[in-house]
Amino acid sequence: MSRIDYFHDPAAPPANSVVPSVTAVVTDDSGRLLLIHKTDNGLWALPGGGHDIGESVAQAVVREVLEETGVNVEVVAVTGLYTDPAHVMAYDDGEVRQQFSICFRARPVGGALRTSEESKEVRWVAPVDLPGLDIHPSMRLRIEHGLDPERTSTFIG
Asked: Which fold has domain 3-146?
């Protein structure tokens, strides 16, 4: 399913749903960041997705990262809560979802890189290479917050 992200765009359609979701800032021992090249919008992003009934948000992080990247992770900390009502995602089925995302810092504990239906490419990226990638502004903010060792948590609402 394709999607269009609207970020502080006055032409954005009104939201008709809110779905709690998670993202993960996963770094390896070299300080490289785990990113996916998304199939739904063609942008680079942190791995993540919707929170399912019956799981904790930490379990959602572990499941989503594994599903999208092939990497097993351990959740370390919350880095931010992002609920900006001026950021909506319009899907081709008519859903227009208001952003509601909890971002976590996590570390890899196993697995091997692989793609999925949601990721056409999975890569460890050095932070100095991030400016050359097409990343949505809201995702760049999460990455910036998650990579900042001085920051313990952020609320963007």
From this structure: Nucleoside Triphosphate Pyrophosphohydrolase (3.90.79)
**Span 58-76, pLDDT tens digits:** 999 999 999 999 999 999 9
Enter the tokens of residue 22.
């998670």
Contact of 57 with 140, CB cutoff 8 Å: no
Query: What is the average pLDDT across 83-109?
Result: 93
**Residue 8 region, left (φ>0) first, then alpha (ψ -120 to 50), else beta?**
left
The stretch 43-57 carries a mean pLDDT of 95
To 5 degrees, how large is the angle CA 11–CA 85–CA 4?
Answer: 50
CA dihedral for 46, 52, 57, 63, sign (positive or negative): negative
Instruction: Note whether 106 and 75 are within 8 A (CB).
Output: yes
Q: Where are the alpha helices (DSSP H) in the chain?
A: 57-69, 137-147
Domain range list for the chain: 3-146
Closest Cα to residue 130, out of 41, 32, 42, 47?
32
What count of residues does the chain have? 157
Once rounded to an integer, what is the mean pLDDT over residues 131-140?
95
